[in-house]
Design goal:
Layout lengths: L3 H14 L4 E9 L2 E8 L4 E5 L4 E8 L1 E5 L3 E5 L3 E3 L5 E5 L3 E8 L8 H4 L1
Antiparallel strand pairs: 1-2, 2-9, 3-8, 4-7, 4-9, 5-6, 5-8
Length: 115
């Protein structure tokens, strides 16, 4: 079984070699629960997108900005619930983070859809 550290190193190497500056690996897919490890190179952005019914982000390495109605700056070791609105992510430096989402709940696609 891989450790977060070894998987994070592999993903960052992959992100650095990818033209889009990012790489991801789905670690857990159990019913509606998803845990995905993502690596972004400095300056890489994830365009604004809808929020799943529930989500959190845990920064393992680096520094990120999560932008929605407000901008939250997150650095190594910080965890935050993601906004229930459209949001984007920008890596201020090479970063690896764990994204936990709950998806596919009956009658729910996104908090944005309910508003």
């Amino acid at each position: 079984m891989d450790t977060f550290q070894s998987t994070a190193r592999e993903l960052m190497a992959e992100a650095r070699s990818n033209e889009n500056g990012r790489a991801a690996r789905l670690l857990i897919h159990d019913g509606p629960l998803r845990q995905t490890l993502l690596a972004l190179t400095a300056g890489t952005q994830l365009a604004e997108h809808n929020s799943p019914p529930a989500a959190s982000i845990l920064v393992l390495e680096g520094r990120l900005a999560v932008t929605a109605q407000e901008t939250d700056e997150l650095s190594q070791g910080q965890i935050a619930a993601l906004t229930h609105h459209r949001h984007g992510v920008t890596a201020h430096e090479d970063s690896v983070f764990l994204l936990t989402t709950v998806t596919g709940l009956p009658g729910s696609t996104s908090h944005d859809d309910a508003e």
